[in-house]
Specification:
heterotetramer; A: alpha/beta; 7-stranded mixed β-sheet; B: alpha/beta; Aspartate Aminotransferase, domain 2; Aspartate Aminotransferase, domain 1; 4-stranded antiparallel β-sheet; globular; binds pyridoxal-5'-phosphate
Chain lengths: 458, 483, 458, 483
C-alpha cells in the first residue's frame, strides 16, 4: 500500500481499541444511499519506477532547444544552490509558520524577503507573497480602492499596454467589487502609454492608475509623468514591475515627485523556473501608511520571553482566519516556497549581480534586435526605450514565422496578433542573459530563412 | 545559537562570483529611468548564503522531520518522487506560452488530472487554474454569481456559511460581492437545519459547506440540506479541503454539490512549502460548466489543446497570468498515479482509522471530546475547557508543550465555536507507533499539568526561541530590517 | 572571485594584522627560481550559468534510449528519496566522522549499513565500505592471506569466470605482495567454474579460493561445492557477490557446510546510479573471528559519559593513521556517501522489496533470452542457471551487432570477445526490473534485424 | 532526543509500497541456491525512512552548516552547481562500458580534466582512476617500483617517508612491497637534510613528500632534497593533499617530483561526503608515463578514446572495475572550469592569507605556535603543551569545547611529532568574519580554562551525545544491531 504504513496487525489492534469490527463501520454516518462501492475510471497504481518512466517520456517530449519567448515569464540562470536548498525537507514539507517557535527558519526567510522586496521596489513594506503577478495586481487595485478614501468612483485607469492576461485577471477578480477598469491607449509609434490620453481624464474622479514598467511590449513607460498625474488627480499610482528590471531601473517608490503608493509584480524572474507558468509568486509592497490595508501574511521581528529576538506572523487581524468576512482579502495559502527560492536567489546575486544580469539581458536583446535589422522587412516596432524585450515587425504573419522557427527547435517569441489584432505582423522577442551570441546568431539566421520561406510561398 | 540576518553576514563589495556575470554590458537607457539607490540586497559569498539558509531550514519543523497532527491541514507525507519527477528539466523549462504542438506531454498530464479529479468528486468538468484553496473558492462562488446573473436572477445577494467554516469561506463570499449569512451548528455537531430553513430563500445564491465539516463530523442530513438549498433556488458549494476523509467513499456530486474546489496540497499531498504554493482546482456539474475559469485542457483534432476565453465565452475568466501552479499540479498528478484506484480508496480508510484511533486513545487518557457521541472522520475536536480551568492547561500551553516533545501542535482555537479546542488530524501516512508516541506525549503533558501547572506555561524551552511577544510585534510592527 | 569572500578591505585588514605588505610576501619561503609567474593553459573562468550549459550539452550528447548492458554495473530503479536525502548538505559536505559527537548522523547510518550488509551476506561483521567491488576483492584476498595462518603459499585460486576487470585489479594490487593468482577454468557448456579443475589442486597449499556469485556470465556457481572444497583443503573461501542477487540467493555465510569466511562485492546495485563507473562502493564482510584483520573503518555502538547510547569509529588501531606502516590497509577516505545512499535504498525496499526486485530482474532477463530464441542462430550460450544476465551466442560477430543496435539507440550488451577470445560471437545481456515487456520486445526486434542486416551485409 | 535505529522503526509486513514491484515474478532457480533466511533489512514506510534519515542528517556537522578548520583536510565550500551538473541524467545514466562512439561528451570532460591537472602540477600525463588519495599513492609508488624493475634495478627496496607524513604514506609504501625508512624533521620544521643524506642510497626506491609538509611549512630546501634523491637513483613522490597552498605558485614538476597524486576532494573541492568518495588522480613526468594506471583518456582519429592495458603494456594495470570515481571527477572538472586560470591562482593566495591571519590572531590571543618563526602555508600547527599542563586544556578538550561553540574542531594529535597539537586550516572560502568568530571562540575557551579548568573537560554539552566511551567501543565491539 503506497504511503500507508499499516500492517494487518496494526489495523486489527487499532480497530480493537476503537471498538469496531472493521474499517467500514467507521463510515456508518454516511447515508447508505450515498456510499460508493468503489471508484471508477481511475487507473491502477504505478510504482515510482513506472511513473518515473512515464514522466520522463512526457517531459522529454516537450523539450525545445532554444527559447526566445518572454511575455511575462523569463528564462534566467538559476544558481544550483537555490533549489537544492529550497527543496530541503524542512522548507519543502513545512506548514505555514503559525507555530512561530517551531518555524523560525521560514519566518526569518520571509522577513529577509520582505526587506529585500521593499527595498527593491523602493517602498516601505512588503507582504509575504501573493499567488502570482496578475493576481497580485488585482489585490493591489482592490487595496488602492480601499485606501483611496477621497475617491468614490472605483474607476481605475489601465494601460492597454499592460499584459493582456493581467488585464483579464484584474477583470475577473475586481469586477465583482464594482471596479470600473478604463483603458489607456498606447502610442502607436513609441509603444508606451499615451500620456495625452491620461489628460482626457483630468478632473475626473479616478481612484487609481496602473503603471506597468516595462509594459507588455518591453517598452519603458513614462512612469514619472504618470505617477505625477496620479498625484495631481487624487489617484493612487500602482506600479506593476519586473523585479529583475529593478536591478537597473528606477523603483516605483521613486517615480515622479512622491513615488507610487503600491507596487506589485511577478516574482518569477528571481530564481523561479518557467515551469509552464507556475508556481510563481506575486509580490506586493506599499507605503508604510497603507500597511493595514495590505492583504496577505506579514512577518514581524519581536522578542521572546527572555528578550531574545525572534520572528512571528503579525497583524493577523487583517486576515480571513481572524477577521473572516471583513478581512482585507480571502488569501490564506500563498507561495511560501517560491519566496524561499527568491530570497536565496537574491542573496546569491546581490545588488551587483542583479544589476549586471539585468544589464546583460538588456544588451542581449539589443544585439538580437540589431541582428534582425539585416533581414529585409524586419523592423523594431516601437521607438521608445525598452528593457530586455522587443517587438519586431515582420513582412509576413508572426504566427506563421513562429511555427517555422518551432520546426527548428526555436521558440521564437510571442505572437502579438493573438492579443492585439493591429499587431498581427509582430512578434515579441526576448533574449535573457542565458542566450549567447551564438544563440542570437542562430535566431537571426533562422528568422531570415523562415521569412524567406514564407515569402516564396507554398 | 541564533542565526544572524543574511544582511548582517554581508560586506560591501562581497560577491558570489560564480553567479554574477562580468561587468560591462552596455546600458543605453535614458539616465532618468535608471535607479541610483542601491537595493538592500545582501552581499555575501556563496558559502555564506548556502550555510545561512541551510541553518535556517534546520530551525523549522516539517513533515520530513516531525509528526504534524494539524487539523484541517492534512499534513501527510509528500513523496519525494513527486518532487523529483515534477522537476524534470523538460517540465521546468517549458514556457507557459509554448504552443500546443510542442506541449503534448505536459497537456496530457493536465488533461488526465482533470479527468481523475472529476472521477473522485462526481463532477463533470475541472479547471486547474486556481492557485490555492481560497482562489478555488473565489472561482466557485464567482461561478455561482455568474450562473444566477446569466439567468437574469439578480436578487440573489447572500451566501450561507456555517459558523464552523474556515475563514476563507466568508471572506471569499464577500470578495465575490455577496453578503454572508452565518448558520449555527446544532448540539450534535450537524448543521442547525431549522436555522437553515429560516435563512434559505430567494436571496440565497448558495451555501458553502465542507463535508465532513471542520469539526471532523460527517453532515448526516446532507441530502436535506441539498433539497432546501436547491429548493430555494440556490447552489451548493463544496469546500474540498476535507476530501481526505471521504475519498472513494462518497462523491460530492452525489451529495448534491454543484461546484467544488480541492486543496491538492492536502488530499493530493503536494507539499505545503512553509505556506504554499498550493492548488485549489475547481470542479463543476453540468449547470456551471459554461462558467468554468480558463484556461483548461480539452481535446481537439490535433491532440490536447487549451480551452481559452474565446472558446468559452461565459467563463468567469482568468485567475492567473498563465494556467495556475503547474508544478503543484504535476506533483498531484504523479501522486494520484502512484496511488491508483485502490490506493485512493485506502486514503480515507486509513485517515479515518487513524483519527478514530487517536480519538479513542485520547479519550481514554482523560481528554474531553467535543462530540463524544460521534465518529471522527479524518479529524476530531478535543476541548481543554476543563483542563484550562483546573490546571491552566489551555490549548496554547498544550500546543507549546508538544513542540518540546518533538511533535507539531494540532490546530488550536479553530473551529471558533468550541472553547479551548484542538483540531487533530493524523492523516493516513502515519504509523501506529507514531500515533502512540503522540498520545503518550499528550497524556504526559496532562499528567505534568496536574502536578505542576506552571510548567506548561513555560513551554517551549527546546525551540530556537521561547514564546514570542506577539503583542509587541503587532503594536510596533518591525517588518523589515534597517541597518 | 568565485568562492572567495574577501573584499579589498578584508584583505587589507588581514595583511595588516599579519604584518606584511601584500599577499605575495606570504610566499617568500618558496625559492625564487621555483616561483611561477602565472598558470598557463588553463581556460578562463566560466560562470555557473555558462558551465551549466556546457555540461548539459555534453551530458545530453551521450544519452542512450535503452540499456541492456550490465557486466558489473546495473541500471536499477533508485527511489527519488535516496538521492534527495543523500545530497543534503549535512551528509554531502560532512567530513569523516572523527569527531564523533558532531557526526552522530553519519555514524549511525554506517552502523545501520554494517548491520544490513552483514546480514545480507550472512556474515557477522561489515566494514564501512571500500572503494569499489574490484578493489574490495583485492583487499579481501590480502585479508585472507593474512588470516590464513596455516597457509604459506599465498596461492589464490581465481575462476576465469570472474569479471576480467576484477581479475586485473586483483593483479595490480596483490602482485606487489607476492600473491600468486591461479586460474580456474570454466565449464564451456555450463559456464560455471569447472569443479574438476579444483580437484587438480587438492592437497596443494592453497591460501584462498575466490568464488563469484553470479560469475561474469551471470551464471550461478556451485558455491556449496567450492566452499566445501576450500574448507577441506585449508583454504579460505572469499565470495564476490552481487548484493541485489542476495535478495534471492543463498548468502556467502551459508554456502557449503561452514560458509565463506569473507564476502565482498560491488554495492552499486543498491541505489547507486551507473554514472560511468563510479563513485560506487565495495563492501567487505567477514566472520567475527577475522574482524581484527578486516581493513577499513568500523563504527561501533557505545555509550557517552551519561550512559546514553551513541556511535563512534572503533578498532582504529588497525588503520593507517594509528598503525602507519603496519596497518591492515592503506585505505583512508572510502565511499561514505554511497553507503548513505545504499542504506536509504535498502531501508526503502526492505527485505521483501529486495527479493521482488531481484526476482523481477531475473524474470525480465529470462523473457529476453526466451524472446531471442526465435531469431535464427541465436542461442543461450551456457546451460547452467543464471541470475539476471545471460550470454547469447550469435550467428555473427557480437561487436558488429552491438554497433548496429547502438545506431538504434540501444546499448545491446557487452562484447565478450574483448575479454574471452573464444566468445567472439557472444554478447552478455542484462534486463533489470526497469526494462518493460515493450523494451524487451524492441530489443528482440532490433537484434533480429541487426543480425539479418549483417547476414545480408557487404 | 535520540533517534532510534531504522530497524527499531520497522514492523514485520510494513512496506514502502511505491518502491516495491508487485509480487509474482517467477523464479526458476534450483531451490538449494536460494536464500531461506530473511536478511535483516528494515521494514518501514517511505515516510518513516525519509524522516529517519532527514533527522539523522541533522545530527551532523558539515561544511554547509559549520566552519571546519580541519588541517590536512581542506574543507572548503563544495559548490552546489558541481553537484547539480554532475548529476545531470545523461551523466548518471551513462554505463561505464558504453562504447566510445556514444561517450564523447563524457570523455571530453575527462580529457580536459587530465590536461588541466597536468598544467597545475607540471606533470606530463594523468590518470584519473585512483579512487582516493591512498589509492593515488598506491599507484604512484607502484609506478616507482615498476620503473626500477623495468630497468632491471631490483635492489631498491626502501621508501623514505618523513616522520610528519600522513599515515597513508608509510602504509602505502608497505602495501607496495617496500620497507619504510622514517626521516626526522629538523628543529626549524624542514626535513633533516643530514639524515636524508645518510639514508638515501642504492636501496632507495624513492621518497614520499608533501610540500608544504603536514606541518604547514614549505620545505625550503626542496631542490637539495631532489638532488640527493635523484643523485641516489631514487624518485620523488608528491603527496598532493596539500596542493591548496601552492596552486599556481609553484609546480611540483618544477620542484623535481616525478609522480604526484592530487586529492581532488581537497584542492578541487569535491565533497567529503562523511568519509568519501574522493579521488586521488595520479600524474607523472615523462619517465613514468609508460607505467600510468589504465584506463585514461587519449585522443584518436575518431575523437576521444580510452587508453587501456592493450595500448599501454607497461602500465601497472587497473585499480578499479571501471574508471574510478567518475562523478567525483565531473565535480572537480566543473569546479575547475568555474575557477578558471585566475581563480586557481587565487586559491593559494587566499588560503595562505587566511591561515596566516588566523595564526597571527591566535598567537596574539596567547596560543603557542609550533613554528613561530615560519610563515604558515595553508595550515599551521598550534601546540597546547603549556595549556595542557597548566589548565588541563588538552587538544581534545579544546576540540570538544569548540563543538559546543558551533565550530568543528581542528585536526588534533597530528602530525604526531608535535605534542598536544592542533593542525588548523581555514581554507580560502571562509570570510574574515567567520575566522574572527573562530579566533574569539578559541580565546574564550582559553580564558574559561584559566578560570575553571574543569569546564572544558565536560565539553561537549550541546551535541546529541556527550563524550563517548571509546575504550568500551574497542573492548566490546558492537558493530551490528541484534534485536
Ligand atoms: C476547510 C478549509 N477551507 C479552505 C482552506 C483554504 O485553502 P488555502 O489555504 O489553500 O487557500 C483551508 C486551508 O487552509 C481549509 O482548511
Ligand atoms: C597529507 C595527506 N596524504 C594523504 C591523504 C589520504 O588521502 P585519502 O583520504 O583520500 O585516501 C590525506 C587525507 O586524508 C592527507 O591529508
Amino acid at each position: 500500500m503506497p504511503f500507508i504504513p499499516h500492517t494487518g496487525a496494526d489495523t486489527d489492534a487499532m480497530l480493537k481499541t476503537i471498538g469496531v469490527a472493521g474499517i467500514d463501520e467507521l463510515f456508518e454516518e454516511i447515508p447508505g444511499d450515498l456510499r460508493l462501492e468503489s471508484l471508477e475510471g481511475i487507473p491502477d497504481a504505478m510504482t515510482e519506477s513506472e511513473v518515473g518512466r512515464l514522466m520522463r517520456r512526457r517531459a522529454a517530449r516537450d523539450e525545445m532547444a532554444l527559447n526566445f519567448l518572454g511575455a511575462g515569464a523569463y528564462e534566467h540562470h538559476i544558481p544550483a544552490a537555490v533549489w537544492e536548498l529550497t527543496t530541503r525537507g524542512e522548507f519543502y514539507s513545512a506548514y505555514t509558520p503559525y507555530q512561530a517557535e517551531a518555524s523560525q527558519g521560514t519566518l526569518q526567510v520571509i522577513y529577509e524577503y520582505q526587506t529585500m522586496m521593499a527595498s527593491l521596489t523602493g517602498l516601505d513594506v512588503s507582504n509575504a507573497s501573493h499567488y502570482d503577478g496578475a493576481s497580485a495586481l488585482a489585490e493591489a487595485v482592490l487595496m488602492a480602492v480601499r485606501c483611496n478614501r477621497r475617491s468614490t468612483s472605483r474607476r481605475v485607469l489601465v494601460p492597454r499596454a499592460l499584459h493582456p492576461h493581467y488585464r483579464a485577471v484584474l477583470e475577473t477578480i475586481t469586477s465583482t467589487q464594482g471596479v470600473d477598469l478604463v483603458d489607456l491607449p498606447y502610442d502607436p509609434a513609441g509603444g508606451h502609454t499615451d500620456t495625452g490620453a491620461l489628460d482626457d481624464h483630468a478632473g475626473e474622479d479616478v481612484t487609481a492608475v496602473v503603471i506597468p514598467q516595462p509594459n507588455v511590449f518591453g517598452v519603458l513607460e513614462p512612469v514619472d509623468t504618470m505617477t505625477d498625474w496620479a498625484a495631481d488627480n487624487g489617484a493612487l499610482a500602482v506600479g506593476v514591475v519586473n523585479p529583475m528590471a529593478l536591478g537597473l531601473l528606477k523603483p516605483p517608490g521613486e517615480w515622479g515627485r512622491e513615488g507610487a503608493a503600491i507596487a506589485c509584480g511577478e516574482g518569477q524572474p528571481l530564481g523561479v523556473p518557467l515551469s509552464s507558468g507556475g508556481p510563481y509568486f506575486g509580490f506586493l509592497t506599499c507605503r508604510q501608511a497603507l500597511v493595514r490595508q495590505l492583504p496577505g501574511r506579514l512577518v514581524g521581528r519581536t522578542v521572546d520571553v527572555d528578550g531574545k529576538p525572534g520572528f512571528t506572523l503579525t497583524l493577523q487581524a487583517r486576515e480571513q482566519h481572524i477577521r473572516r468576512s471583513r478581512a482585507t482579502s480571502n488569501i490564506c495559502t500563498n507561495q511560501g516556497l517560491m519566496v524561499t527560492a527568491a530570497t536565496i536567489y537574491m542573496s546569491l546575486v546581490g545588488p551587483v549581480g542583479l544589476r549586471r544580469v539585468a544589464a546583460l539581458c538588456h544588451a542581449r536583446t539589443a544585439a538580437l534586435a540589431a541582428g534582425t535589422q539585416s533581414i529585409g522587412g524586419v523592423s523594431v516596432a516601437f521607438a521608445s526605450p525598452h528593457f530586455h524585450e522587443v517587438v519586431l515587425r515582420l513582412p509576413v504573419s508572426g504566427n506563421e514565422v513562429l511555427e517555422r522557427l518551432r520546426a527548428q527547435g526555436i521558440l521564437g517569441g510571442a505572437d502579438l496578433g493573438r492579443w492585439y489584432p493591429e499587431l498581427g505582423d509582430a512578434v515579441l522577442v526576448c533574449a535573457t542573459e542565458t542566450r549567447t551570441g551564438q544563440d542570437i546568431h542562430r535566431y537571426v539566421e533562422a528568422l531570415g530563412s523562415a521569412i524567406g520561406g514564407i515569402g516564396d510561398g507554398p | 545559537m541564533s542565526e544572524p540576518l543574511v544582511f548582517e553576514l554581508g560586506r560591501s563589495g562581497r560577491l558570489a562570483g560564480a553567479q554574477v556575470p562580468e561587468a560591462g554590458a552596455a546600458v543605453d537607457l535614458p539616465p532618468e529611468m535608471l535607479r541610483d539607490s542601491r537595493p538592500q540586497l545582501p552581499e555575501v559569498s556563496e558559502l555564506d548564503a548556502v550555510r545561512h539558509y541551510t541553518r535556517l531550514s534546520q530551525r523549522n519543523f516539517s513533515i520530513d522531520t516531525q509528526f504534524y497532527p494539524l487539523g484541517s491541514c492534512t499534513m501527510k507525507y509528500n513523496p519525494r518522487g513527486c518532487n523529483t519527477y515534477a522537476m524534470l528539466p523538460g517540465f521546468l523549462q517549458r514556457h507557459p506560452l509554448a504552443p500546443e504542438d510542442v506541449s503534448q506531454g505536459f497537456l496530457a498530464c493536465m488533461y488526465e488530472l482533470q479527468r481523475m479529479l472529476c472521477r473522485v468528486t462526481g463532477m463533470t468538468a475541472f479547471s486547474l487554474t486556481p492557485m490555492a484553496g481560497a482562489q478555488g473558492e473565489l472561482s466557485g462562488v464567482a461561478m455561482i454569481r455568474a450562473y444566477h446573473l446569466d439567468r437574469g436572477d439578480t436578487e440573489r445577494t447572500e451566501i450561507l456559511v456555517p459558523d464552523a467554516a474556515h475563514g476563507t469561506n466568508p471572506a471569499t463570499a464577500v470578495k465575490c460581492g455577496f453578503a454572508v449569512r452565518e448558520l449555527p451548528t446544532a448540539a450534535d455537531g450537524d448543521l442547525d437545519i431549522d436555522a437553515l430553513r429560516r435563512l434559505a430563500g430567494p436571496r440565497t445564491a448558495g451555501i458553502m459547506l465542507t463535508n465532513p465539516s471542520t469539526l471532523g463530523l460527517f453532515e448526516r442530513r446532507i441530502q436535506e440540506v441539498r433539497d432546501i438549498i436547491h429548493g430555494a433556488g440556490g447552489l451548493l458549494y463544496y469546500d474540498g479541503a476535507n476530501l481526505n476523509a471521504i475519498l472513494g467513499k462518497v462523491l460530492p456530486g452525489d451529495m448534491g454539490f454543484d461546484v467544488i474546489h480541492i486543496n491538492l496540497h492536502k488530499t493530493f499531498s503536494t507539499p505545503h512549502g512553509g505556506g504554499g504554493p498550493g492548488s485549489g482546482a475547481v470542479g463543476v456539474g453540468e449547470r456551471l460548466e459554461p462558467f468554468l475559469p480558463t484556461p483548461f485542457v480539452g481535446i481537439g483534432a490535433d491532440g490536447y489543446r487549451w480551452v481559452d476565453a474565446a472558446d468559452h465565452p461565459k467563463s468567469i475568466g482568468r485567475l492567473s497570468a498563465f494556467m495556475g501552479n503547474a508544478g503543484v499540479l504535476l506533483r498531484a498528478y504523479i501522486y494520484m498515479r502512484m496511488l491508483g484506484r485502490r490506493g485512493m480508496e485506502r486514503v480515507a480508510d486509513y485517515a479515518v482509522l487513524n483519527a478514530n484511533y487517536v480519538m479513542a486513545r485520547l479519550a481514554a487518557a482523560g481528554f474531553d471530546l467535543a462530540y463524544p457521541e460521534r465518529r471522527a472522520c479524518h479529524e476530531f475536536v478535543v476541548t481543554l475547557k476543563r483542563q484550562a480551568r483546573e490546571h491552566g492547561l489551555t490549548a496554547i500551553n498544550l500546543a507549546k508543550a508538544l513542540l518540546d516533545r518533538g511533535f507539531h501542535a494540532p490546530t488550536t482555537y479553530f473551529p471558533l465555536l468550541v472553547p479551548e479546542c484542538l483540531l487533530i488530524e493524523p492523516t493516513e501516512t502515519e504509523s501506529k507507533e507514531t500515533l502512540d508516541r503522540f498520545v503518550d506525549a499528550m497524556a504526559d503533558i496532562l499528567a505534568e499539568a496536574q502536578v505542576d501547572p506552571e510548567r506548561c506555561k513555560q513551554a517551549p524551552v527546546t525551540m530556537p526561541v521561547r514564546r514570542l511577544d506577539e503583542v509587541r510585534a503587532a503594536r510596533k510592527p518591525d517588518l523589515r530590517y534597517r541597518p
